[in-house]
Design goal:
Length: 438
């Protein structure tokens, strides 16, 4: 037998470290070659680390949420053959549980093992009783009462009042008094033994407890990204309402006659509007390296599509949207959304966007103030499309209206240019034929 140490490999793009997200193995497991060991997250994507050998897991290095540097040990395995590590220097440390098992027992430990284990201590002093009455033996009484359904438990008014305050149903409390009468000590023993609290008669129960959730993995990346964006970027928000009636009519017609082509949402039309306008506003299709003080204006339009997944918000990228027609854009959005939600999107799918669209879909609300996807300088957010009365040519008519929210980096984009850009986008969407005219 030999020892094989699996170290964090270089996952590309100059990454020096990665966060441990989730282990898929534990000490003692026998694993096969190419079996998934651990998921690690870089700045770009989550990567599955697979085993290059077959063996038995001896030790794991690092907990979920901790950072591991490239070249650092992640997993140690016992393997057939020589392995890749010298084990002659020192034997592997035994698990704590095994050490404790091998250690000789003290006289006190032996005596403690012979004590009854069913002892329950009352949580509160029993009214009218001394401290000696607070210690009860639960071995003599069942954990839950076995009364005939419908039989009213015997208890004093004080016990009933206290049970109601505790949220305990006396029907399930064993009684040690005459004729099974429930006393304060019985109530204490029931609570201390882990009896489930019932719902008070008025139907409302107090809730206590605090759940601690460690922010790791994708949630930590999202938190860091949002914090970095708000800390660095002075956001300028702009909202305009758009009459989507004509575009919605066109979209419904195209979907009804699409054949085997993908169903169209509003996003491909919005993408088409962006690629038409951005050549006239190169400062908006840009990424700002504020550390170097350089704005990189891009000719290509790489549109990030904010996508909600079970793990949080991820932004896959539709590359060269300027070269796609309306159907190709819809297909690419659908493909990336599927890969992202399945956790199969690669680094190239998740990096390099020059402007982002974020949409809450049916939950779009009235208005949002989207956070810019740093280091980009603009983000566009369509809200819900709703029917509402508007005035047209002096008449009140019902139209399908949508608010379009947007945010811009005010260091790079002037307010006038941002407003003009959104006004021109509004015009294209309200007259959808112009989206397809050169």
């Amino acid at each position: 037998m030999g020892r094989y140490v699996f170290k964090l490999p270089d996952v590309g793009e100059g990454t020096a470290e990665a966060e441990i997200v989730a282990w898929h193995i534990k000490v003692g497991d026998r694993i096969e070659e190419d079996q998934n060991l651990v998921d690690v997250m870089t700045d770009k994507a989550t990567v599955e680390m697979t085993s290059p050998v077959t063996g038995v897991v001896v030790s794991l290095h690092g907990q979920p949420g901790e950072m591991a540097t490239v070249g650092a040990p992640l997993v140690e395995l016992d393997v057939e053959g020589a392995g890749n590590a010298d084990t002659s220097a020192a034997p592997p440390a035994k698990p704590k549980a095994e050490v404790a098992k091998l250690a000789p027992k003290t006289e006190k430990q032996k005596a403690d093992e012979q004590k009854p284990s069913a002892e329950v201590i009352s949580l509160a002093p029993t009214p009218g009783q001394g401290n000696g009455a607070q210690k009860r033996k639960s071995a003599a009484a069942p954990a839950f009462a076995t009364r005939t359904p419908g039989t009213k438990p015997l208890a004093s008014p004080a016990v009933r009042r206290r049970a109601e305050e505790l949220g305990v149903q006396l029907q399930f409390v064993p009684g040690s008094g005459p004729a099974g009468r429930i006393e304060h000590g019985d109530l204490d023993a029931y609570v201390a033994s882990g009896g489930k609290a019932g719902v008070p008669q008025h139907g409302h129960a107090k809730r206590d407890g605090i759940e601690e959730i460690k922010v790791i993995g994708l949630r930590r990346k999202i938190a860091e990204k949002m914090q970095e964006s708000k800390r660095r970027i002075p956001h300028f928000a702009y909202v305009e309402e758009i009459d989507m009636t004509e575009l919605e009519s066109l979209r419904a017609h195209l979907n009804a006659t699409r054949g085997d082509r993908p169903k169209l949402s509003v996003l491909p039309f919005l993408m088409r509007g962006l690629v038409r306008l951005l050549p006239d506003y190169p400062q908006i299709n840009a990424r700002f390296d504020d550390d170097a003080g350089i704005v990189h204006r891009h000719a290509a339009v790489h549109i990030g599509i904010a996508t909600q997944t079970s793990n949080g918000l991820i932004v896959p990228v539709v590359r060269h949207a300027e070269a796609l027609d309306i159907w190709e854009a819809a297909s690419e959005v659908a493909r990336l959304a599927r890969l992202t939600r399945e956790g199969k999107a690669g680094r190239d799918d998740l990096s390099g966007s020059t402007i982002t669209i974020t949409s809450l879909g049916a939950l779009g609300g009235i208005v949002t103030t989207p956070v810019i996807n740093h280091p980009e300088v603009a983000i566009i957010g369509p809200n819900a499309i709703v029917e509402r009365p508007v005035v047209r040519d002096g008449q009140i008519v019902v139209r399908r209206m949508m608010n379009l929210s947007s945010s811009f980096d005010h260091r790079v984009v002037d307010g006038y240019d941002a407003a003009e850009f959104i006004q021109r986008l509004k015009s294209l969407l309200e007259h959808p034929a112009t989206l397809f005219m050169d």
